[in-house]
Amino acid sequence: MLPYKSAIPIAEALRRGEGKATVRGWVYRKRTLKEKVFLLLRDATGVIQLVVPRAKFPEAESLNLESSLVATGVLVREPRAPGGVELHVESIDWVYVGEPYPINEDAAVSDSEYLLDVRHLWLRSRKMQAILKIRHTVFGAIHDYFRRRGFYEVHPPMFITAAVEGGATLFKVEYFDRTVYLTQSSQFYLEALIYSLEKVYTVAPSFRAEPSRTRRHLTEFWHAEMEIAWAHMDDAAKVGEEVIGHVVERVLDERQDELKLLGRKVEALERAKPPFHWLSYDEAIEVLRKKGFALSWGDDIGADEERALTLEFDKPIILHGFPEKLKAFYHRNNPQRPEVTLSFDVLLPEGYGEVIGGGERIYDAKELVEKIIRFGLNPEDYQWYIDLRRYGSVPHAGFGLGVDRLVMWIAGADHIRDVVPFPRDIRRTRP
Ligand code: 4AD
Questions:
Q1: What is the ipTM of this complex?
Q2: Atom number of ligand 1 nearest to Cα 346
Q3: N or C terminus of the chain: which is more exposed, having fewer CB within 10 Å?
């Protein structure tokens, strides 16, 4: 049998703490002390210290980091070793002795551009490993939440022909003899699907030709979107609170080690339980004016304003009732107060800001056509979307959640790029 087939996960070796064991992995750190070489070996589950006798394995001393190997020996409890256990090595299979590794994890942390250039390698770092595990838990928890609540998972197309979120950020794609676009949001397709399945969701990439590089914008991001028939703004906002609450609870349950490795303080996460803090746009303007922002009713709440709001409250905020002109054409206007829409955003605390955008949709065909024209758009471009309103239309609402932004906040990252394995922005399309 190939020696690596009999290896046990490093986490399992640490749990056992005694007896003979074989582990396999990559050399993560190396230190020589007198007659011994200490190799820290990592796999997907953890890190273990290998104690390698220099006399028997002279090649260990000059071994390059990230070389792959299989080691067999005896597990010994040692409080000074990471994980409290080390492996006293008796035999080694040098699977692949690597070239000098181009990343020094300690020195490189400050040079974020370099780490993006070598992202294909940097994914091996303990930090990226922790983030990728948190991402895994977040995506799993989103699917679990929707499925347990009776939502059907659906699969809208990525090639589309009409803008959902405005023409300015559409990516064009050559499509045989035509031009089509990459989707900015699956919303319109989810709106079609509620007439079949009533409660639907999807988790898929969305694309935006975002011209600016900010800490929270990518050109390709993961979008968790849902739509519910027979529902209003409040119903959608409550689902938003619940799904975030559920995801955070799951991460706190399963990913304490990773949060600790990232140095994430968890108090703000622990407070993110529904109900969130509900704040109307009108109230937000008042709060911001008191804080010294020169804002009038109708002004946009930009990134700085969002940040200031989130620092006022210790829970995520449901910011609702935006003026018509601040939100896309499909938002239903409040029949009691037509100048505002039945729309909401969810803002994450600690300065992170918007993670969800959603609301109630116009479900009357005539009202929709009028608003499309009022917004200077062409109803021809939205023919099938308008058609949905012609046959048994019902009140409905939904939202889109930026999953990378949610992971960014949960992980306490400074930049959205830090939580995506292969981030895409205006300058970066490789690796
Ligand atoms: O607020 P947005 O633009 O809303 C929509 O797309 C709706 N059609 C969704 C719906 O109702 N089904 O985007 C929703 C969320 C934002 O709150 C943000 O979290 C994320 O998507 N998002 C981005 N994340 C990363 N990079 C970008 N460029 C993003 N643009 C939006």
A1: 0.99
A2: 17
A3: N
